Amino acid sequence: MSKQPTASRPSPGSTGASRVAELELDRVTVRFGGLVALSDAALTVRPHTVHGVIGPNGAGKTTLFNVACGFVRPDEGQILRRGEHLTRLRPSDLPGLGMARTLQGLGLFDRVTVLDNVMIGADRHARTGFWASALAWPTSGREERALRERALGALAELGIADLAPLVAGSLPYPLRKKVALARALVGEPELLLLDEPASGLAADEIDDLGELVRGLTDRMAVLLVEHHMDLVMRICDDITVLDFGRVIAHGPPEQVRNDPAVLEAYLGEDV
Amino acid sequence: MERISRLVGSTLARHLLVAALGMVVVVMALTAVSDFRRFQLAEMACLAIAAGGLTVLTGLNGQLSLGHGALMAVGTYTTALLLPDRDASTPLVLVVLISVCTATLVGALVGVAAARLHGPYLAGATLALAVAVPGLALHFRETLGGEQGIPVVAPPPPGWAEDATYFLTASDLTPRGWIAFLAWSTLILSFLLLANLSHSRVGRRWRAVRDDPVAAELAGIVVGRSRVSAFMVSAAAAGAAGSMLALVVRLAAPGSFTLALSLTLIAAVVLGGLGSLTGALLGAALLTFLPQFVTQIGRDAGLDDVRAAELAPLVYGLVMVLVILLAPGGLFGVIRGALTRRRARRALAARSVEASTSTRPDPDSPPDEQLTDPSGDHRTATTTEGAPR
Ligand SMILES: Nc1ncnc2c1ncn2[C@@H]1O[C@H](COP(=O)(O)OP(=O)(O)OP(=O)(O)O)[C@@H](O)[C@H]1O
Ligand SMILES: [Mg+2]
After folding, report:
1. How would you class B102 by CB atoms within 10 Å of its CB: exposed for 0-12, middle for 13-18, buried for 19 or more?
2. Which residues of B touch A162 (CB under 8 A)?
3. Do B201 and A140 touch (CB under 8 A)?
4. CA nearest B329: which of B377, B283, B384?
5. Which of B60, B56, B52, B113 is nearest to B240 (CA)?
6. Contact between chains at A111 and B223 (C-beta distance less than 8 A)
7. Which of A63, A108, A134 sits opposite B193 (nearest CB)?
8. Are the beta carbons of B161 and B150 closer than 8 angstroms?
9. B383 pLDDT above the threshold of 80
10. CA atoms of B46 and B68, how far apart (whole Å)
């Protein structure tokens, strides 16, 4: 039970340190009626890095995620995953593409257990079909047990294995956030998209989160939307700054921090 | 943890055990009661099978159907149309299977439409089904028998069943006893399959779609397909129920499939507790026997027959309102809800004890002011479909 679900993952070096981007958005434009939510936005997520997306409220950060996940089809522009064009991307394709995403509103399955929540996250590893389920075929039982182990491993990694039998909707918010994170991690993605993972957390919890996300980079790349500026500056390798749907700056934290355009967008805020 | 995994590990063994026990109880009960009670019990089984299918659809997948009575009708009419040529010797099992398949097919069509609809629209579409299907029987008068319906020739009990009954109970197997046995066997078989599904990957995916379609989709579930599959399974159960009903009442007539039947099914599901098969069984029992029981009490209290009969819907409505007010989770949900709440309290309490006794502050245990959800009403934010905001 102590076996971590991710132990079987090859170390980053063994794949020959591929240089090709985990995700590339190329001149993406999204319009909602008259409103331009994204305009020629571009970004490249390098393997094994944390890439931050920041910007004021309504800048288009969640829309950018929605494009990368197939919820919103861009009016113009391309999405590339490891150099391959993702045309007609649908959200249900994500696990198969080695991607996982957490939602700004968490989106937990509130009326089932924490364990079931995380097992759904691990569903890409399951094969059991309808008839094997209906007849409770022995293979389905074996697979269920494997899936449960995997889920418990992911919960243990975040220190919440004891919550497994509880109904997710009954938990306090910070614990719910951890469950949502465990559900995303258990699928063993190579690209993880986190939409405001630190919102609603206390200062020490944010510190822990930062450490955790940094630790993930040996097995995946992370694309992160976040408002907590100190967290972003501390853990990101690259930062893309959005304002009114446009990329106004991108680069490493120290460069972005002193960019005049960024300072102007965040006028009065301590960047 | 070891105990949990062992316990849950053998879903099939557990369900088979319950099914076998159920079978024994059913046989014992059916031999003990009068022929009229056998008829009533058979009717109850039909109601329960359909309610079991509906509780899976509504409770596990979050789809409402006001049209399950119509899906039962599809099963009943298919059986009625296939049975008269018993001389052509279509085995009864095959007749039932074909009825189930026909209802499943209709369910698939409705399911495809339903997967795109929500709330009141879904209710409206399935309501239309409930109203339209009995109308078909009137329209295609020659084949479907119009108002009078099609009489059903119920098959006589086979030799082996008569012998077994005589051997076990030293009494003769009546035709009604045989049909009641068939209906209850169908109930147990369909509940076994439904329970297996509910505890499997399929059931987990249905629940995920019910609780949050957006998050379910991100986990790789094609939401529309999942909804259609739930509708088909549910329709299959309704078809089996309808097929049995044809044998029990020996008639397929539009009068049996009014909107009231669909509403009765929903009532059974709500009374028992959404998503619970045991609850569906309880609800079906209550709705089969309560009216009669109440009428009897009315007569004993000195009411005339008409007044006594009017008492039943009154009590029925009252029970419904009371359950919804006092136990919104249904009769079965009350017990389950109390158990899960207690478990949650204990685990969270254990967490904070752990935190306060450890020398190092535990990052996992939040300070008290963090116990509320700062994002406010996250439910409405995420259960709407489309792009997450
Ligand atoms: N589905 C939609 N239909 C219409 N307008 C939308 C839609 N989604 C987003 N918008 C609009 O697009 C703009 C960008 O929204 P988005 O949610 O991407 O911002 P954000 O950067 O994530 O903001 P926040 O920091 O508040 O989460 C906003 O003006 C928003 O109202
Ligand atoms: Mg956002």
Report:
1. buried
2. 347, 350-351
3. yes
4. B283
5. B52
6. no
7. A134
8. no
9. no
10. 12
A57 in ligand 1 pocket by Cβ < 6 Å? Answer: yes
- Rounded Cα distance between B168 and A56, Å, is 79
Residue A269: the pLDDT is: 60
Task: Assess if residue B1 is contained within a domain.
Answer: no
| Overall average pLDDT of the B35-57 stretch | 95
What pTM, to 2 d.p., does this model score? 0.86
> Which residue, among A17, A34, A32, has the nearest Cα to A62 in the 3D structure?
A32
User: From the CB of A60, is ligand 1 less than 6 Å away?
Assistant: yes
Within a domain: B261: no
Partner-chain contact B196 A133, CB within 8 Å: yes
- CATH topology classification for A1-98+189-271: Rossmann fold (3.40.50)
Q: How far is it, in rounded angstroms, from Cα B129 to Cα B142?
A: 22
The answer to whether residue A4 scores a pLDDT higher than 50 is: no
The alpha carbon of A58 and the centre of ligand 1 are apart by a number of angstroms equal to 5
A130 contacts: CB under 8 Å, gap ≥ 6: B202, B229
Q: Do A120 and B205 count as a contact with CB atoms less than 8 A apart?
A: yes
Kindly state the tokens that stand for B99.
Answer: 């009825």
The ipTM of this complex is 0.88
The residue-averaged pLDDT of B169-179 equals: 87
Q: Name the closest ligand to CA A61.
A: 1
Query: How does pLDDT run across B179-188, given as a tens digit for each residue?
Result: 999 999 999 9
* Alpha carbon nearest to ligand 1 atom 14, residue: A60
State the CB neighbour count (10 A cutoff) for residue B264.
21
Atom 22 (ligand 1) nearest CA: A62
Could you tell me where the DSSP H helices lie in chain B? Answer: 2-9, 11-32, 35-55, 61, 68-82, 92-114, 119-139, 141-144, 159-169, 175-198, 201-211, 213-218, 223-249, 259-272, 277-300, 305-326, 330-357, 378-383
Residue B324, in any domain of the structure = no
Please report, in angstroms and rounded to a whole number, the separation of the first and last CA atoms in chain A.
44
Q: Give the span between the Cα atoms of B372 and A172, in whole angstroms.
A: 6
What's the Cα-to-Cα distance from A21 to each of A79, A107, B257, B325, rounded to whole Å? 11, 28, 61, 57
**Contact between B332 and B279 (Cβ < 8 Å):** yes
Q: Helix or strand or coil: residue A176?
A: helix
Which secondary-structure segment (H or E) carries A27? strand A23-32
A104-112 mean pLDDT: 92
- Tell how strand A23-32 and strand A35-45 pair up: antiparallel
Domain around B140: 15-256
pLDDT of residue B214: 95
The nearest CA of chain A is from the CA of B196 a distance in Å of: 5
Q: Which residue ranges make up each domain of chain A?
A: 1-98+189-271, 108-187
Q: Which residues contact A113 (CB under 8 A, 6 or more apart)?
A: A164, A165, A166, A167, A168
Asked if the structure places residue B315 within a domain, the reply is no
Tokens for B302? Answer: 């000195």
Closest atom of ligand 1 to A104 CA is 27
Distances (CA, A) of B56 to B131, B191, B195, B204, B384: 23, 10, 9, 12, 21
Domains: count for chain B:
1
For residues B334 and A153, the answer to whether their CB atoms sit within 8 Å is: no
Task: Write out the two tokens for B349.
Answer: 């309490």
> Which residue's structure tokens are 């960019």?
A259
Q: Which of A62, A71, A120 sits opposite B204 (nearest CB)?
A: A120
Residue A26 has pLDDT above 70, yes or no: yes
